[in-house]
Amino acid sequence: MQPPRKILIYNTMWGELPDISAEDIPENYVITTDRSLMNKAVAVVFHLPSLKPGISIGKHNGQIWVAWSMECESHYPNMSDPSFMSRFDLSMTYRLDSDIPFPYVPSDFSELLKHPVAEKTEGNIVNSFISSTYNKSGRIGLLMELMSILDIHSYGKLFQNMNSNSDNGHRFKLDTIATYKFTLAFENAIATDYVTEKFYDPLIAGSIPVYLGAPNLEDLAPGDNCFINASDWASPQHLARYIMEVAEDEALYRSYFEWREKPLRQNFKRLLELQKVHPFVRLCHKIDAML
User: Fold this and answer.
1) What 3-state DSSP class applies to 186?
2) How far is 25 from 282, CA to CA, in rounded Å?
3) According to the CATH classification, is domain 109-269 in 1.20.1050.90?
């Protein structure tokens, strides 16, 4: 019996290993972080955003190198450099045209939608959970403009005006969002397919996302009329005016939740099917086809 093929994760994603158990990995594969096995690995996975610049690594004959990232390329110049990227044989990223697509869509999205939309707390109109200063999308300026017009409750580190000391992670965020009519869903960069949990969390929690980000958001949205696109408005003032119009018109507001009672879009269903198989399992299958 042949020993299992080794996939080396050269550097982890911000110190975190993939959330996959050894039992889920195909039996003819093993995933390791032991760099001493570099010359025995059939594939080496590099987390590009945390890979030290200028590092020199030798590629063994026949070895498959995998570019792994969930971050937008605009923050990491190497990832937009054809010469640098030519070193890699496969890509495993959020982009739908990756060899192993790894979108942010939660695999249990359909189950999470079964929770009814909660009644909103009086006075809770718009919330924001923005902490990072990454600003390739221009979101900080837009947030400042909107906060000068609307009563926005900011739980993130940027312009924080609400107490989040009781924050117990993602659960706190979802529970808080659920009490608001709108959630500012501003990506830190604008790029095709770069649609993160900032968009999906409000949909799950029952709040209307006010979205700034991917130009092809419709390709990754679960249904019709489920968000407000900030880019559709000529100015922050126009956007703020529309948000308040929706907030004050019960029929218009509820129209943004009608999609929850209808079948999910076919494109979105395909994304959910894709997410049922862990990306590292799909990577194993891809390697099988290449060797």
Assistant:
1) strand
2) 10
3) no
- What is the CATH number assigned to the segment(s) 5-103+277-290? 3.40.50
- Distance between CA 203 and CA 222 in Å, rounded? 9
Tell me the sheet residues that pair with 43: 7, 64
DSSP letter (8 states) at residue 120: P
- Residue span(s) of the chain under CATH 3.40.50.11660 come to 109-269
Residue 54 to residue 50: CA distance in whole angstroms? 12
Catalytic residues: 71
Structural contact between residues 118 and 206, judged by C-beta atoms closer than 8 angstroms:
yes
Q: How confident is the model at residue 55 (pLDDT cuts 50, 70, 90)?
A: confident
Strand partners, 8: 32, 44
Inter-residue contact 127 to 152 (CB < 8 Å): yes
- Residue-level length of the chain: 291
Q: Is 199 helix (H, G, I), strand (E, B) or coil?
A: helix
Residue 128: CB partners within 8 Å, gap ≥ 6?
143, 152, 153, 154, 155, 156, 158, 159, 183, 184, 186
Reply yes or no on whether the pLDDT at 279 is more than 70. yes
Give CA–CA dist 248/232, Å, rounded.
20
pLDDT in tens, 141-165: 999 999 999 999 999 999 999 987 6
- The DSSP line for 223-267 is STT--EEGGGSSSHHHHHHHHHHHHH-HHHHHHTTGGGGSPPPHH
